[in-house]
Amino acid sequence: MLKVENVTAGYLQSPVLREVSLQLEDNECACVVGANGAGKSTLMSLISGLMRPSSGSIMFNETSLIGLSPSKIVDLGIIQVPEGRRLFPRMTVAENLLLGARNARARPETKASFEKVYHLFPILEERGKQKAGTLSGGQQQMLAIARGLMAKPKVLLLDEPSIGLSPILVAEIFKTVGGLVNDGISVLLVEQNVRAALAVSSHGFLVERGRIVLSGKSQDLVEESAIKRGFIGG
Amino acid sequence: MDLTILLQVILQGLMLGAMYGLVSLGMTLIFVTTGLMNFAHGSFMAVAMYLALSLFTAFHFDPYVSVFITVPTLFIIGWILFRFVVRRLLEVHILMAAQVTLGMLWVIESVLSTIYGNNIQSVPTVIGSSKVYLGPLVVTGPYLVTFVVAAIVGVLLFLLLQKTDFGRSVRALMQDRKAAELMGIRVDRTQTAVFGLGLALLGLAGPLVVPMISVSPFVGLQFTLFAFMIMVFGGSSNLLGSVVGGLMFGLVDSLGRFFFTGNIASLIPFSALVLVLLLRPGGLLGEK
């Protein structure tokens, strides 16, 4: 279980996140929604160890994540699929996937992981030798998620997977994301597309200007007017 | 004018250029993985050359034997320097790290000058006067050895980068640092190893070229400039570009010295660089 408690982070004068608390249960998909600049990606950076909060705690089961290096956090099984994909453009699809599996837990299962992700995203096997930078937007997103899965995540942090994708692709990818909890992976989804995010998750958190202003079961949140105001793709 | 002589000049230029390419490759690798411009790069090459000189003076080691000592020595120096000095400054600001390499440049120059004096020196080798005949062309031993070693090391480096875990980590770090960190790649360790590798390449190049190029305490900056020019010439973030740039540089320099003398000859490579950059601002193989 991933627990963020009272985290404040960002610049001293104007923090990006203020006293943010949320939690992700085991085998659950939860979403963090809100407009651009609300602080969602900062949250991802904090959990992954790329940034430190100025106060608050971030716990994964009994372990505190604060102060751990990004590579230690990856070793714990917390894997981020960053905003904008951030693939290695001049490396092939297969090389990108191979790099995903480099942590100590994932390495022994590399071959099995390749089979799993090729089964989930057959197009990636087809394009195995193609340079990642030449793939289409949707294929790149699939590769980014697949690369994250190669790392054998216990927790998958997905940062804005729907950006730049057509509604059909969004639906397709979110369907896959929703299925991940059945494989024992907990998913924390950060999204601008509120409707799609709530449809695939069990709990949701709405962030506005650095604070959590609303939280609850996704099916309840859909009815809230604050959410309805923020509907994108609705 | 004898065509044979011209071809010989071209051949020698290319052969020496291969080693320049390796030197520049080290600088490029450091630049793309850390963002740091190593102003002391050429100075470390001078260190390697003087080490070869000392090993010859003290133990009569041929430079081609000294290589086996200078390569690990320079690697270790590089590792330690990066780990304990450069890395800490990089965390503060990249300009501070660049400044420290500039400082190293002057410190190395002073130390070398104190130990060895200011005269130009070179180191002889047993194969110094041996010749190899390639058709109508004659190549002296040192040039041939330098080229062959540079070619072999070049291929080994290519294999390292393409086929090994470490190589993949380096390439990943080059292409997207944040993503590399999210894969669990230890950025600091990778950078330290690359810095050590860059200096190890200098430990290789130094003794190999010292029979052909004389050394003085002040050549450090000149070598750094050459390496930098080649790096920019080939496209700053392009590794293959550094190799090709090195070959071209060797060629242009050799031809320049053949047709012109002294100061004008020194200007030729710089002029060529300016010309190339006017036509292709990103370098020969760089992005537009």
Structural account:
The complex is a heterodimer of chains A (234) and B (288). Chain A has 234 residues and is α/β, with parallel strands linked by helices. Chain A has two domains: 1-76 and 153-234, P-loop containing nucleotide triphosphate hydrolases (Rossmann fold, 3-Layer(aba) Sandwich), CATH 3.40.50; 78-150, no CATH class. Chain A has ten helices and ten strands. Chain A has helices at residues 40-47, 70-75, 93-100, 110-120, 122-126, 137-150, 167-179, 194-200, 218-221, 225-229, and strands at residues 2-10, 15-24, 29-33, 55-60, 63-64, 78-81, 155-159, 186-191, 203-208, 211-217. Chain A has a six-stranded mixed beta sheet, sandwiched between helices. A four-stranded antiparallel beta sheet of chain A has the order 2-1-4-5, with helices on one face. In chain A, helix 3 runs parallel beside helix 6 (137-150). The longest helix of chain A is centred in the middle third of the chain and has 14 residues, at 137-150. The relative contact order of chain A is 0.19. Chain B has a domain at 11-123 and 134-217. Chain B has eleven helices and two strands; from the N terminus they run ααααββααααααα. Chain B has helices at residues 3-34, 41-59, 63-92, 94-116, 141-163, 165-175, 177-182, 187-209, 219-234, 239-259, 262-279; strands at residues 131-134, 137-140. In chain B, strands 1-2 form a two-stranded antiparallel sheet. Chain B is globular and about 60 Å long. Classes of the chains: A alpha/beta (234), B mainly alpha (288). At the A-B interface, helix 2 and helix 3 of A face helix 6 and helix 7 of B.
